[in-house]
Amino acid sequence: MNGRIFACLVGFGIVALAAVTGFAEAWPLGSHTHYITFSRAVQLPGVELAAGTYIFELATPDSDRTIVRVSSRDRRHVYLQAFTLDVARPANLKKDEIVTFREATGAAAPPIAAWYPPDLESGRQFIYR
After folding, report:
1. Whole-model pTM?
2. What is the number of structural domains in the chain?
């Protein structure tokens, strides 16, 4: 009888651990994930994004906030994963404005200068070469 109780407790413990682990992966703490929709093409270092919705997020939010990942809305394609620089949020930038652009030449897609997650005090500046 004691063996059955012990086996049940171990079984429940494994199920509980799996449930907690699954929850932690589904809802990462501090990921600063934002869905951003562009009405026209934009540029990031080394890539041009067509008009559409993309996910901007910190790749390793709990250990290093310098790496930004930009992926497709369904997360099947990563367009950019790169180091960025910390940049202060401009005082005149509204809270709902979360990206700024650099000047574009001619009809070229405008390059994104920085991403400002609304839940952070500062933003992430993209590094162009």
Report:
1. 0.73
2. 2
